[in-house]
Automatic annotation (TrEMBL):
This is 3-hydroxy-3-methylglutaryl coenzyme A reductase. Pathway: Metabolic intermediate metabolism; (R)-mevalonate degradation; (S)-3-hydroxy-3-methylglutaryl-CoA from (R)-mevalonate: step 1/1. It is an enzyme of class 1 (oxidoreductase). InterPro entries: HMG_CoA_Rdtase, HMG_CoA_Rdtase_bac-typ, HMG_CoA_Rdtase_cat_sf, HMG_CoA_Rdtase_CS, HMG_CoA_Rdtase_NAD(P)-bd_sf, HMG_CoA_Rdtase_sub-bd_dom_sf. The keyword NAD applies. It catalyses: (R)-mevalonate + 2 NAD(+) + CoA = (3S)-3-hydroxy-3-methylglutaryl-CoA + 2 NADH + 2 H(+). Its EC number is 1.1.1.88. It holds the Pfam family HMG-CoA_red. The keyword Zinc does not apply. GO terms for molecular function: hydroxymethylglutaryl-CoA reductase (NADH) activity; hydroxymethylglutaryl-CoA reductase (NADPH) activity. PROSITE patterns: HMG_COA_REDUCTASE_2 (PS00318), HMG_COA_REDUCTASE_3 (PS01192), HMG_COA_REDUCTASE_4 (PS50065). GO terms for biological process: coenzyme A metabolic process. Keywords: NAD, Oxidoreductase.
Amino acid sequence: MAGSTEGRSSRIEGFYRRSLEDRIGIISEWAGLTCEETAVLAESIGAEQADKMVENVVGRFSMPLGIGANFLIDGRDYLIPMAVEEPSVVAGASSAALLARAGVGFKTGCTDPIMIAQIQLLDVADASKAKRAILASQEKILACADTSPTISQLGGGPQGMEVRYLPDTEAGPMLIVHLFIDCRDAMGANAANTAAEAAAPLIEQISGGRAGLRILSNLSDRRRAWAEVEIAAKAFDSNDYSGREVIRGIAEANAFAIADPYRATTHNKGIFNGVDAVLLATGNDWRAVEAGAHAWAARGGQYRALTDWHVRGCGDSETLHGRLELPLAVGTVGGATRSHASAQIALKILGLDVDGQEEFSTESGGSAGDAGAESGLQGARRLSQIVAAVGLAQNLAALRALATTGIQKGHMRLHARQVAVAAGARGEAVERIAGQLIAEGSIRLERAKELLRM
């Protein structure tokens, strides 16, 4: 099928050195794009379509769409569409993915796509009695919250509920009802909000309270994805550093981010350089995912690193093991994934089923609630696993640089091109001026303008 990765490799030698036209041709062949779809890579959406997506439109704001290469995820090759303006992000992810191939690539998993719809209850006379009454009426409440026939037909819909008591808030005590909604391939904001609004009157009647807010929570901690990787120390060997030195440095850097929230903030920002780029390319709500993940990072009372990197084994058998787990509410149907042509192309490049059909295989002994490498997922859950792998790769690239040459060397080399363009360089002059700035070790706009005048 178009977009399938079976029998192909994402290891494309010298992909970054190819011309723009060559790279587009490779991606078009990889994803089985039509001529019209290939044109979308350059043109994206028109002004008329943009005017239908948001309010007060006056134009369009374009961003580069790069391809993260070399990704081997659960034994399958992927080329990763990444919409990002920051230099070195795509290169870093691709480099780390190549390192991961020295092992078995990335292994991933995810939970069922459960979103939380919250209903705030105020003026409840007896909180304990109301909580018992609400839980005793669970079946009736969930039936009332079952508002999407399409999602229900696909095996989703309301799955359960819980009641939380907040005894001491500035507005007095509150009961908070959580409805657990399986949203299948949708991100689920509309489904969760509709379910909360539909169930609120019945919950008011049962509890004797007054319903306040009825809305989803973006802390989707029941909808998580994770990625793991293990790489032999020798894969990190270079002329300047031994692999064992590098992986120890990576583990020490991660320990710093676990212990210190100031470092953790920058550490996690680097993860989202990759996560957000894929979310944006596929038309997903990166703001919601970031909000939930940052809350997840602070769930123990202190903001910490989202990743865990540590060294296993000893001597020549040492390996670096990394894991990233975070809430990831993403969709492959609805919203911008349907209305934005570039998002549909990005999903096609990933080989995902944009029609929302999911497959699930339990041949490996897995269950639908804990999907792993052999799950056969093709929709939103598979996308969440891919995103987690990209986030882990991005973090590995950053920590490797920090543990060796420092983050600026590679970043500024790529930044030099942006400076050349800002100075007015075009065509071949961009690379010429960027190369001179790098050689001089002075990547400044003023110097780029001087070189352009020479």
